[in-house]
Fold each of these.
Amino acid sequence: MSGFRQARWNEPLVFERSKIGTIAYSLPAVEKEVQKALPKPIESIPPTLRRQTPPELPELSEPEVLQHFVRLSQMNYCVDLGLYPLGSCTMKYNPPINERIVQNPYFSWLHPQQDESEIQGILQILYELKQWLAEITGMNQISLQPAAGAHGEFAGALIIRAYHAENDELATRREIIVPDSAHGTNPASAAMAGFNVVVVPSNNDGQVDLQALQSAVSKRTAGLMLTNPNTLGLFEQKIESISEIIHDVGGLLYYDGANLNANLGRVRPGDMGFDIVHLNLHKTFATPHGGGGPGAGPIGVKGALSPFLPTPLVSFDGTKYYLDKERPKSIGRVHGYLGNVLVLLKSYAYILHMGSLGLKAAAEHAVLNANYIMKCLEGVGGYSIPFAPDTWRMHEIVISAKPLLRDTGISARDVAKALLDRGLHAPTFYFPAIVEEALMIEPTETFSKEELDRFIEALREIAEQAYDNPDLVSRSPQHTAASRLDEVRAAHPRTMALSWRMYQKRSKSQSTTQA
Amino acid sequence: MPAFRHPFLPNAGEQQKAILAKLGITSVEALFKDIPSKFRFKGKMKIPEGLSEIEVRRHIEMLLEKNSTPYLSTSFLGGGVWPHMVPEVVHSVTSRTEFYTAYTPYQAEISQGMLQALFEYQSLIAELVDLPVVNASMYDWASALGEAALMTSRLTKRSTFLIPEFIAPNRKAVLATYTAPANVSIQRVPSNPVQGKLDLERLKEMMSSEIAGVYLENPAYLGYLEPDVDAIAEIVHDAGALLVVGVDPISLGIIRPPGDYDADVVIGEGQPLGNGVNFGGSLLGIFACKDDRRILRQMPGRLIGLTTTTEGERRGFVMTLQAREQHIRRERATSNICSNQALCAVAAAAYLCTLGPTGLRRLGEQIMQLRHYMERQMSKLDGVLAPRFQATHFKEFVFSLEDRKERRLSILALMKKISQEKIFGGIPLNLEFPKLGESALVCVTELHTKRDIDKYTASIQQALEVE
């Protein structure tokens, strides 16, 4: 066993630590003359708008606030601790220098509505980042505005919509096609942009079934959303035929950039026939994911589609950088300002740090790591590697714990939880749905062979344990801050608590019922 | 293999050889053979050569220093992202690598810290807005508005959404982008030209069985408070529509929370709660609703719930009600949102714990005092109408240049002129709202002092006199 023990602080909710009269705030004094001008500010508020009872926020001292959150942080796994092999999430190293860079006051105090002459530095950075991302993806024009990958997909789907509307075909082109192995955001984004979703199956090699695709397309087809390599980690070799099938019926080809990492410097979506791409900077371009966000989801398009990109567009007229707002065909704004610029700036630093050779090397190391894991797991009892047995994977691999479930009753979920007990994050599980008991593993270039060996050894050990003593595995995790949690209770109308306030109310009504 | 080495790549040299040996290949090229050769990128990408850490830093510092940065005390720019203090303790919390280098807490048992912090964020905002259900964040206020409009349309099966006449143009633009594909039409409710508040008579006339929801902001985009909230809520609900209210959360230590006047959905911009200005690029979309199953089922975004371990012995936190979300429901999800602004939400949680109820009230009072002082000083200037609207304001107000024959200076020129003294004077409104004439929106926060305000008014006065 690993000896791993995550902190278990039994940390109360911050509300339960509150002690009336304690303060952690520190406010500047207001000059007498200013105070005298309005001695009782609350009385200047119309009575219908005064807050009568103060919000029930906790009262703590500053050291207690910090202690609380530091304790919470110790009950959280992160990529700086070790392998975080969430497939399709590309959890790579987040260079600390980038965190330092964004604290520069020339950035942190900059307001988005300053005059363009005052923000030339940041606009230059954003403009150059656009140029680099266009070069990396083989696209002509980029918008940095979407705040996350799914936000980029939404913008991309709106561009598909705008393109067909421009051609007076929107009334018939109602369908967006997605493979059955697509990320869940693809159909959701297509639906938000007003399209119907048509799903095409994968063939036995785990690739888009060309015959199925051929029979799915028609004059109703607006576009196809695809990720390449796909979610099995396989490169869609028939990409040229796929592109032809879609373009022949007048549809557009959309590239989901979640799996771009393997392609850096090797193959570009633009060259493969894609018309629109989105990128996930918090994946491929090394920005931290912040426990769920902020991310950044720039989109790129081929030249003919650039009039539709979100407005405004960071542009350069040869002497100065500016925000192009004269974009009558644009889909409009998707963000209040220019997107998650804090994240964009970190990716700018990352690309500068890696350079073209570094990015290409990162892709190679990531692919080596994924295939190393696959090779080491071949023949390990309990797991199988479905689809395309003799084919190298790209950025990720998908294994199945189906044999283990059949033989021992131990599921992919159990394996995932047992990994947590060994101080390793679990892979993405039960996705893609075309693999039963799926464990989707993306090691990225960040982790050493030693860390990969630790992971492989853990998977092997868990399988052995499953055959010897399945109860031990099914009880895991035991060494994390919490053991398995009751998800039914969390979602049940009688016990559901989405806030401290709801929790107190539900507990009260329950105790009344019991009494 | 090329002997390329980089500080971020651990498997150089011996380790890489061992990996290649295990794979039974001599070169990494073998792994890429599935890429059709006609698509292989053969050249070298036209991006810079890699730099060292110090060069990266130096280069970016050089570029950033081309910006003219509002030193905190001389910027009066707000309008949706505002300069406020970020207590150092908040920065310490969000700088914890355990928080910022984590992914979405998909594996709850090993991610309790983030889950509890986000649950606390939801709980703290619930207290602030006086509604029990809060999601774990949206991208920003603008996208939260778009999602709220769509949600009211799904809930009522109606397709018109009403917004106030004076709304931030960028917010309105995002709303239009979100609602267009769902064929939800947006109509504006006129405002009282003197007080700014919604015209209740016109609102009544506009209400019909077509109206899905009505949106109001408190404080409004132009800084004034909307006093007729109870009457508005009644008009909206009588017509079977939903009331959506947008807030600046930092005002809610002293301003009545929308839950208290029966708002069904509350949205807002959480950036003032412990997040920097950052060129408008680390925002926090607040999204809250009533504890009503029908509404809850239509809510977009992630929700963290409090539960127990399966043995029932200990408390714990999980992502819940995921059947609304894209990874389960796919094309029938309530929204496609996946990544959100989680770390900004953690900052907001730490911020609200730092301020507490007293701090937030005192902060609100102090901001109102400073704003009032500035209004008063500005109103003394010849040729300036301040505040433009006869109403109580929170931290922002509009001032106008009086329409005089001899005046030549436009609001834009005036702002440009005082910017030479490093004063970032406000957001000109002449393009956004021509009917307001030569006007600007100015923002005052706790970061301003009497000296800053006096300097500002003196500069305006001087600029107008020199004219």
Amino acid sequence: MNHPDLALAFIADKPRAKWHDETLWFVRSKRDKAAWQLPEWELLRETAAAIKAHTMSHLADYLEQFESQAQKLGVKVHWANDAAEHNAIVHGILRERGVRKLVKSKSMLTEECHLNPYLERHGIEVVDTDLGERIVQLAGESPSHIVLPAIHKKKEDVGAIFHEHLHTPEGMSDPLFLAEAARQHLRDKFMQADAALTGVNFAVAETGGIVICTNEGNADLGVSLPKIHIACMGIEKLIPRAADLSVFLRLLARSATGQPITTYSSHFHGPMPGGEMHIVLVDNGRTDLLGSDDFRRSLNCIRCGACMNTCPVYRRSGGHSYESTVPGPIGSILAPSRDAKKHGSLPFACSLCGSCTDVCPVKIDIHHQLLTWRKEIAHRGLLPRSKSWGMKVMSRVLRSPRLYAASGWLARKVVPKLPRFMIYNPLNAWGKRRELPEFPRESFREQFERRHGK
Amino acid sequence: MGSRDDILRAVRAQTLPDKPAPSLDQQWIRYDDRRTQFATVLAGVGGRCEFVADGAEAARKLMEHPAYDAAKRVASFVPEITRGNVDLATIGDPHALEDVDFAILRGEIAVAENGAVWVTDAGVRHRALYFITQHLVLVVPASALVDNMPQAYERLQFTGPGYGAFLSGPSKTADIEQSLVIGAHGPRSMTVFCVGD
């Protein structure tokens, strides 16, 4: 399936699609208000982008430094080339220690690696503890947004899911009640867990520490009870110095939800006393991106979700239309890098308005990279025929002034006289849900000649 | 070790032009009235800040907390406010903290910019206490109030194993239709006492 077809299903429910659009725009406007509180906002973005560019230009050194510093703190560091190796490493750690029950806090990397189904196949109970992630996990779905995983669900949906799985009263959809039910349910899971797994927001080369940001406190509660903490991270999460965190923590929550900082910004340096800590460093295609001059900067992403909240296409088509772990504008760069054939429609799910680039806290030139991807997809011969055929025709017409003038004349004279079914039919995607503008009677050239003579 | 070498080799194969690290020594925001800024931002994220002269005043203010009267188990690391009734020295397993109603702990730094308080597990045997308690009270010297995050990091050192966190308000979620709910997994309230001048 491609993005436009999947989006069709999303917009079929008009009130819901409208709610989705307006809610995310509200989050975007909260982001604006938070950014305006800091006169140095643009300087922060530039500094963050510069730190990331610096890190990428010394990434191997920083990875080695991080590894040795983390080892000094008593951390066991693992390396995984791809998703399969990552999953095997995590499962190996759990199996050796006889872990049956695992609590997880949010990690887009483990979504990317499809860790949950892998562990479940091996008989391990995996509980996502972020409320939004727990909702989609119980629903048998994937997150539709990287910061707001269940943004596609209405409270009545959540009520129905909780009624089925947590036995809340039927028809109960009050968010306060449902969140309290989840709290009690997940407290039990926290208390019973044998191990905890988390993602990583930032890893500090200088100190060997990792930083995890949440609002619910689920990562902290999860890793504070059992003895085993496994943290999984892409190699691009590295930053050089602890002081760099001051830049990123000031940007992350403000960009994500408009909060001045996440409720919990936790710095883990080594395991807790008497416990053990593992960090899994994962490549899974990242070194390929690092080698691409066009797309390297997409590795700077700190997963705030601001580009999704602002994107007119994302807001109106929903995260699941992207069929990608990371949806939205940044996901439309990352996904084709993995599989250009499967995700070839994503760079076209974009109006090139550039709003994503304007809000990106690390100044990734998102819409430029999406345009580059379009060229790349055409170059690789992956365009659907509807697009490649149209482009061939356009190319012929635009190269010939006579053809161009003739087709303009034809359009002005003929199209307004055509019966509706010939214009508003399935062949014309531009005629769906909108009327064509009124055609001018004369072209610019005709007007010019009439006024100024030949 | 195979994958480690593969990854490092693949990264080193991409020779990128050297980009210098930027300076973090900039004109970051400062506030004429840090106290008001801190208290306002903390209130905005669902927390509460009280400026008090000493522990005795903090203890009196704590009595006014709507949930404190009914609290059965109180764990305290701040004896000048209360000794509490949970003997933390006897608790070996953090799971035993499950029914703690109030935890009263010390914070090291308060940040005016974002209403966050820096805490660590130094001397706190179980870091779980910060998250498992129903209500959290942090006690910070008023002199440890800084303007912004860069100032906070200037004071922090990460020289050995340990846990530290910026905490800003009670645990919260907006994952059900963006409705804000206070008390997701962790504390249902967060009170910060800034003590002294």
